[in-house]
Specification:
It is built from ten helices and seven strands. It is an alpha/beta fold and 255 residues long. It has one domain.
């Protein structure tokens, strides 16, 4: 299994067209159909890595049972059928990979769906949470990811308003409680200590809205201009070839 790392994810998105606004920095990326075809297997495996509870595929394959390994991988893939949930899962995973590769945050997993009693519904709460490395000053990234076929201003407005509410609440410890609970299952003391130092309410916060659509749009974030509440630091849009849906890549399906 090959998943995204900083280098290949940067190659996948390519260079951004940047526009500075009074409400934040907007970055636009375009993933062509050829690029999508080249990174299809990595994208699919990355989605699987974030959402599946099965992590013994390679070990079972090396023992000489590839068909058994693949069957178990399919059974434990936690792939939803609902398209809205599929799109939401894609947005969260791309958002976490982007926050690590481009913004330098150690982001949490897009919580494996074994934590969700109904995989046909998206996980509730903040889409993207990122923490600085243990050797850096504590800073938090809070992000919302929206992925859909056609352009619609309403999801952008909803995401922005959600970030405003989180900013005004200012309760960092509550936001990180589930992150800490999930990390405690791994028993890594260093990770837990890093989470603890980020739970102070005076920790610097950065904000991110990620939009992924099949069709590009010139004024994707113009709704922010009308809201006029400067808080988010970056707005990122990704226009990805429509074949990403028709070929089942975003669905996290395992072939």
């Amino acid at each position: 299994m090959q998943i995204f790392d900083t280098q290949n994810f940067r190659q996948f998105l390519g260079s951004a067209e940047c526009n500075q606004h009074r409400w934040g920095l907007e970055k636009r990326y375009v993933v062509t159909e050829n690029t999508l075809a080249e990174y299809e297997h990595i994208l699919r495996d990355t989605l699987y890595h974030h959402h599946s509870s099965f992590n013994a595929f390679e070990a079972i394959t090396e023992l000489g049972f590839p068909l058994v390994a693949n069957a178990m991988r399919q059974r434990n893939s936690s792939n939803p059928i609902d398209e809205n949930t599929q799109m939401g899962n894609l947005g969260e995973v791309i958002g976490r990979e982007y926050s690590t590769a481009f913004l330098g945050f150690a982001t949490t997993w897009a919580y494996p769906n074994r934590f969700n009693p109904n995989i046909e519904q998206s996980m509730k709460g903040v889409d993207i949470i990122g923490l600085r490395d243990v050797n850096q000053p504590a800073e938090i990234l809070v992000g919302e990811a929206k992925a859909w076929r056609a352009f619609d201003k309403r999801p952008i407005k909803d995401a922005y308003n959600h970030l405003i509410r989180l900013r005004n609440q200012g309760n960092t410890s509550q936001m990180l409680r589930f992150v800490k609970e999930s990390a405690s299952t791994k028993g890594d003391r260093q990770i837990l200590e890093n989470i603890d130092r980020h739970m102070a309410n005076d920790v610097i916060r950065h904000y991110l809205i990620l939009s992924i659509t099949e069709k590009n749009h010139e004024n994707l974030f113009e709704i922010i201009e009308s809201i006029l509440m400067p808080s988010a630091t970056e707005f990122v849009s990704g226009h990805i070839s429509k074949s990403i849906i028709s070929r089942g890549i975003i669905l996290g399906r395992v072939k």
